[in-house]
Amino acid sequence: MRSVIVEFCLCTSLLLTQAQFSLAQADQDKQPSFDDVDLQLVAPNDNRYVAGSLRNGIIELHLDARQAIWRPEIDAGKAVTVAAFAEVGGFARIPGPFLRVSQGSEVRITVRNSLPDAMPIGLPPPNRRDEGVGSVAGPDLIVRGLRAGTVPDDILRVPRGEIREVRFRADLPGTFLYWADTTNRSMRTRTGRDAQLTGAIVVEPAGETPDPNERVFVITMTDSFPDPTKSQPGEDVFELAINGLSWPYTERLHYALGDTVRWRWLNGSGFEHPMHLHGFHFRTIARGDGLRESVYTSETTQNVVTELIEPGHTIRMQWTPTREGNWLMHCHIRDHIIPDPPRDEIARAHDMQDATQHALHAMAGLVLGITVSDNGPDEADREPQHHLRLIAREKQAESLDATIRGFLLQEDSNAAGGTLMVPGPPVVLTRGETTNITVVNTMREPTTVHWHGLELQSVYDGVAGWSRSGSRVAPLVLPGKSFEVYIRPPRAGTFIYHSHMDETEQLTSGMYGPLLVMEPGQNFDPDIDRIFVLGDAIDGDYHSLTINGRREPEPMKFSVGTKYRLRFIDMAPDATLDITASVGGEPLRWHALAKDGADLPPALQKQMAAQFRMGVGETYDFTWTPTKAMDASILVHWTFPTDDGHMDLNQPLQVE
Asked: What is the pTM of this model?
């Protein structure tokens, strides 16, 4: 007999819009079936409806775990058989019903396990089969961490066909996940069809009124491989969703200039997600680890453009749109934002020529679209003080059957020649000054350039067919064509430029580079400013993660007593990296300075051990003044997300 495991860490319930609700009702007559059981269609949950009810002073929520059909791409994608939560008597929802309560509330939750014996869930990827997890006949449904702030082994078992209850007092305010499993796995290893058994709970601080405009976004992911004894043909799936939907079917958000935007993000998947906001910095005002939430004061709140969210963790963010146009927020891991399976050749050829459809065809998964409206006239381009030409080129690799793609930089529009570089050469701008950059495409395929982390007009943001300012729309830069970009950066720091299309080919072959904004009167000095770009490149016979384009970089020389600025950039397609600078096995000490091009608040600009974790799309700046001669090193460690393998890169440091 199959039972189910439900894991709870306080949550909120989710609901669909009226239009989605009507669609779900209309589709009831044409739902797929599995093992001759008629299944309900999952309703995507935007977390704007609070589930449960108040009875005799106790908030009650009655959940039912059931098998259902999920269409994360509405009617455009395939139907997937999954396990999902429903409020008893209601539709199955992804994410599960949303619960929002006040601190101190008494809560009663019941869970019914209605999953059938034949439910093909809980299958791990092949390289995890030796872990002893994942079988067709799983153990009981287990509810974990249902009470906010409790230890992870606080569980509630629910045998198939039965109901169990948990009562608790919501003593800790914050943002929490509840989730279910059928194989008693950890959050990091749950990838099967039961991985959609996830929902959210928000506990508001006592005496505070919830912000009616605050939004709650739950990330879920199903990565299920077929079981040859149970699964139907084609039942292997790879689906990622925000509130139950995958781009371009995710919710479109609309704001006006000057709005205060508050979002909560909950990572209900087993993978890290570096979430990146185009065009604006945001303030991370709280982080949660699944047990409790840490709220930051104004003295410790960072301004960032990319925030790494670990499995089971949460963040709260706040930002203000200051420029109109279309923008994106998305995960910066390549495989989490591209179509799977890849586009066929006909769709690819169409996408390469039609910029209006590029963002819709070339992206998928964990992406949100944002429109900021303004009734004023289009913003005019300022007269530039500087002119640059950034040229996209390609060449055949010498040792591999592969194409190297990258950039070269010309500061004189009449200059010719130059060498393709991977990573691309530093593009250096000055805060408050307008630079005109002509992006020239000499490759055989279209491209775009995204100025990652910069606050600029939307039309220059680099997402073809989506980025727009008034009537001006960002184009694909076709072979032999060019596009004029105007940038006037409002802050100095470390940023990135990179291709924002066909990431599987272009980003992994070298189309990225450092973008540095200097203070007025300052010049970029490569002897003092040391850049470490981490990304895929072809180095000799290898195509792999590199440091500044090399798997085994030459020693970098430093001088005793000189103050250096170390600028780290993670542009690897899917690598969350642990970085340590050490000598003799002991971490060095350096001074934290900035993240994502924004200076840290003074309280965080301090000496610290030279070790940190960074996600794709993040940049970090430190200062370091070596006090003695030494042979040190920077170790870059990457643990592969799908198995226990790892990769280490070493950058030698010679101090004389």
From this structure: 0.90
